[in-house]
């Protein structure tokens, strides 16, 4: 039975509390018993509605694990040796790379930079807080500022070395959309070599608790490629300049680039408001990456990824195509066309959808699978991002329709990792922290 909105808020707060380890939230019990980078940003966005100070804890914990280059790792491992594969023993970042932090155990990859958006939301939420809390929020954002700037500088310098506004990633995990059809073509060229070190998957057991695991997760063949890429990264000792020339997976992620545009703009407003350095630099990054995003769009305004290794454009019918709704900058005709695409039967207007929120792959695409992870299911934080992007660009009507549908979907109170678009059956882990967090924000 669907919960009422006040019940849902209480349930979401309770679910988050269960995943709270003090100064970080695990992404989900069992399946993801550590902190993930973009999950932490969404968690902070949701927590800002409950406690701006606790929201800041989350970002501070993540940034305390930042590398000397400015890289913010995609996983910060929790103290306990909670089972997850690949765990710290497979990454061995600290052993291989002097840039890895000494105080935290991390992965050596990145995830999309949603953090600047979270900082802006925390500062906004603090407006209605008591004066002492607001003062503390401002002080703590000031203290975090050099780390935030370093993160954005890392992305601009190391992941867009040619200055084209294309965000290079070395692994599907860096996109956060691990097995999305976006990466099928580049992964076809990733072939584990003879020196591949075998591994045991931990995800299927962890998910066994909720059933249906193998059909809802990437395949074994995909996992072997994921692990192989980490082996390649270890071989170059997590050195960006070597990775960018040698890795067998090198693509430009248009969705992460669009998030980077928005995050730069959001942080620039924070800089202006608090008198912090770097506003012009951040706006410069936003302009550069917006240009990069728009350069990939077709006549619908739909964006594409690039295979930088093969030198090809990756046109897939996935949610990443809506990147311009986050970056902005489309001319009015193509903005209208992209909106029409979003509400068309290829996406939210598909007649069989239980809730009219965007699936991660168009139900009309051949690669679509309603239950397999990033190949079709609806993911609450992606829904949140599009709502946010639409609201930000003044598309209030479209935003409101998706917002209402998203809240209805989340009213099952389970905060699943992802949902079957046709039945809205909860899939994957639960309660997933970022699903509960975006529910809190949408209901506020
Ligand atoms: C998923 O990715 C991890 C690897 O990073 C995994 O499958 O083990 C993705 O959905 C990713 O976007 C997410 O951040 C992470 C934790 O929720 O899980």
Question: Can you describe this structure?
Answer:
With 444 residues, the protein is mostly helical. It has 2 domains: 1-28 and 350-444, no CATH class; 29-349, Glycosyltransferase. The protein has helices at residues 5-19, 37-47, 52-63, 88-91, 93-96, 115-126, 131-158, 172-175, 184-188, 203-208, 213-216, 220-235, 240-246, 254-274, 279-294, 324-327, 332-343, 380-392, 396-410, 433-443; strands spanning 35-36, 75-76, 168-169, 251-252, 305-307, 312-314, 418-419, 426-427. The strands form 3 sheets. Strands 3-4-5-6 form a 4-stranded antiparallel sheet. It has a two-stranded antiparallel sheet with strand order 1-2. A two-stranded antiparallel ribbon has the order 7-8. A hairpin with a 4-residue loop joins strand 5 and strand 6. Helix 1 packs antiparallel against helix 20 (433-443), helix 2 runs parallel beside helix 6 (115-126) and helix 3 (52-63) packs antiparallel against helix 6 (115-126). The mean pLDDT is 96. The structure holds (2R)-3-hydroxy-2-(alpha-D-mannopyranosyloxy)propanoic acid. (2R)-3-hydroxy-2-(alpha-D-mannopyranosyloxy)propanoic acid binds at residues 27, 32, 36, 38-39, 74, 173, 176, 178.
SSE map:
Layout: H1 5-19, E1 35-36, H2 37-47, H3 52-63, E2 75-76, H4 88-91, H5 93-96, H6 115-126, H7 131-158, E3 168-169, H8 172-175, H9 184-188, H10 203-208, H11 213-216, H12 220-235, H13 240-246, E4 251-252, H14 254-274, H15 279-294, E5 305-307, E6 312-314, H16 324-327, H17 332-343, H18 380-392, H19 396-410, E7 418-419, E8 426-427, H20 433-443
Antiparallel strand pairs: 1-2, 3-4, 4-5, 5-6, 7-8
